[in-house]
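During the reporting period the student researcher (J.K.) took over the structure-prediction task from the postdoctoral fellow and processed the backlog of single-chain submissions. One of the processed entries is reproduced below for the supervisory committee.
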Amino acid sequence: MRILLTGSTGMVGRNFMEHPAAQDFEILAPSHQSLDLQDYLQVERFMAQNRPDVVVHAAGVVGGIQANMARPVAFLLGNLDMGRNVVMAARSAGVRRLVNLGSSCMFPRGLATPLREDMVLTGELEPTNEGYALAKIMVARLCDYISRQKEGFEYKTLIPCNLFGRHDKFSPDVSHLVPAILQKIHAAKRDGAPSVEIWGDGNARREFMYAGDLADCLVEAIRRFDSLPSVMNVGIGADHTINDYYRIGAEIVGYTGTFHHDLTKPVGMMRKLVDTSVARGWGWQASTPLEEGMRKAYDYYLGLSSQTPSQAAGRV
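J.K. obtained the following C-alpha cells:
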C-alpha cells in the first residue's frame, strides 16, 4: 500500500516512520524542500504523479500557548492552506482514502468533559489558540463534506489530545507543556536554580499522550480504514493537573528544588479531556503510561543536548 505522509519531519511523522509496522507500507515522505504544501499546484502535481492509496495529513504549524498568541496569523493561514491544498489535491487526483489529523483545540472552551466528537462547533473557542483551532475545524469539515458529496471517497479525521515524545520541540518559544517542563526543570537542575516558575496556579488539567501511541493508532487506521469512524478522538482518557506534570518531571530529572506560581500568566482552558469511548469501541487504546512516556521524552532530550549546535539545529 502506498501512503503519502505529510509532515514526515515533524514529531507525529517521525514517530509514524519509526513504528515497526511502517516497513509494511510504501511511504512517500516528501520534505518541505521537495514539496511546499502551501503551494496548491505543487501538491496537485505531486498527487497526480504519485497516486497514493492513502493520504495521512500530519503536517502543521504547531506550538505552545506562547507561539499561538504571538503568531495567530501563521497558525490560522498556515494550517488552513496546507490542509485545504492536501485535501483538494487528493480529491482532484482521485485518492479515495485520507486520514486528516485534527486537534483537541477544535473543542469549545468551558464544556463539561470528557469531550465527545459531536461537541465540535457547539460553543466559543479558547482565545489563546483560536486561529489554530479554526483552521483545524475547517479542514475537518472539508473532509466531511467531500465524503458526503463525492461517492466512494472517505476522508476521515482523527482528533488527538495533546502530544509529547521523541522528536518533540524543546525550544521554550515553540514547545508545548511537557517538553517545556522537562527543558525548564533540566535547566534549573543544571544551573542550581532553587525554584522553577509555573504559569497560573497549576490547577488547570491537561491530557497528554505519547506520540508513539498516536503513530500506532495511525497504523491501525490505515489497516482497518473501512471500519474507522469518520471522526474519532485519540487520547488516553485521563488527565492531570499542570502541577502534576511538573512534579513528575522533577522526579524524572532528579530536581529537588521548589516551584512558584505566576498568577499573571495565561493558562488557556481549565480542562480539555477527550472522550475515548468511540476509539475503545473501535478496538484501540493508548498503551504508554505517562511516566514512561515522559522518561522516554527526557532521554531523547538528553540525546539532543549532547549534540553540537549544528547537529541539533532543526530538531529542537
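The committee noted the following: Residues 163 and 231 are 18 Å apart (CA to CA).
J.K. will present the remaining backlog at the next meeting.
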